[in-house]
Amino acid sequence: MNDTAINPSTTLGAAIAGAVRALFTRPGLVTMALAGACATVAFDFFGQSLSPMLGFANLAPVPLANNVIQTLFGTAYRPGAEFLHYFAGMVAYPLGWMVLAHPIARALAPGLGWAVPAVLYGVLLWVFALYVMAHLVAGNPAFLGFTGITWVALVGHVLFAIVAARVVAWRDSTGEAGQWATA
């Protein structure tokens, strides 16, 4: 997933296609799992330990996931909610970074590096979690009513994206993340 393999003239479609090909290699899958694991630990540690210790809201992603399950299936299921939380953190969100957000950022603004696009990706994750899932799917107020948990969730999702992107960048720099295919 080497950044130098994609140049500014690469089309967006080719960048995404190359990212998908690179992801579905052993190094790409290891990178995704490592990025997801590190980012999920950072998100949970911040939201469930640091934030409450500092007097801010405690993030509760599993109860929110359980709310989504209850809305979709008519009954809550805690093991499914745990699975949904970890699947999002370990697979879906890092996958989104590796095959969409990062390739799009590199194709449209190759000089940005990974940090600025990661912050933007974190904001998009926050919108997805608190507007799409919590509001549109589970029926809670949009962005959970812009209470304290809203802003802790924003910081948590941005932190998640930064950690995931940094792990991917580190793996890229060591040559262990697979190679971005050029189309």
Automatic annotation (TrEMBL):
It comes from the Bacteria. The chain crosses the membrane at residues 29-47, 83-100, 112-137, 143-165. Keywords: Membrane, Transmembrane, Transmembrane helix. This is DUF1440 domain-containing protein. It comes from Albimonas pacifica. The lineage of its organism: Bacteria, Pseudomonadati, Pseudomonadota, Alphaproteobacteria, Rhodobacterales.
